[in-house]
Amino acid sequence: MLYFAYGSNLFHKQMKKRCKDSIYIKCFILKNYKLYFRNNYLGGGVADIQKRKNHKVLGALYKISKKDEKKLDVYENFPKTYVKKYFRISGKKVMFYYMPKKTKYNPPSKRYLNLILQGYKDCGWNKKILLKTIKTLKRRLV
Q: H helices within 19-126, ranges in order?
């Protein structure tokens, strides 16, 4: 199965530790979605994406096993916090996690943000893209 990661699972080392069978394929940009950070059951802001025309989410594609998917389900608190959604690339189905309950914005913790920033580095993306997204979200609340 193909899996699209856009939060802390972008960090290749963490993903490999969490999902031993996973194979990183490539970095990928999901169009017409926007990255957001929301409250979760632990209280900190966690990554979510929502449909938004003319926006894009930087992520990574991994090939994962059924065993990896079950581990991710536990980690992502499926189906309470996240549900699964799918899109297709070249006829292949790609799974990603999506928060159906659109809770309020909550900035990510420094630790969580650093994991995502490491994932951006792993993909060769400029971390300023992520930092600008967070800054924009904060400004809209003021």
A: 66-75, 110-123
Q: Residue range 20-39: average pLDDT?
A: 95
Return the ∠ at Cα 28 (arms to 10 and 2), rounded to 5°.
75
| 57: β partners | 30
Q: Which secondary structure element, helix H or strand E, spans residue 55, and what is its range? A: strand 46-63
pLDDT at 70 over 90: yes
Domains defined along the chain, listed by start: 2-141 (3.10.490.10)
Characterise 15 by phi-psi region: left (phi > 0), alpha (psi -120 to 50), beta (else): alpha
Task: Identify the pLDDT of residue 133.
Answer: 80
- Give residue 142's pLDDT: 43
Residue 142 one-letter amino acid: V
**The pTM is what?**
0.91
d(CA 9, CA 60): 8
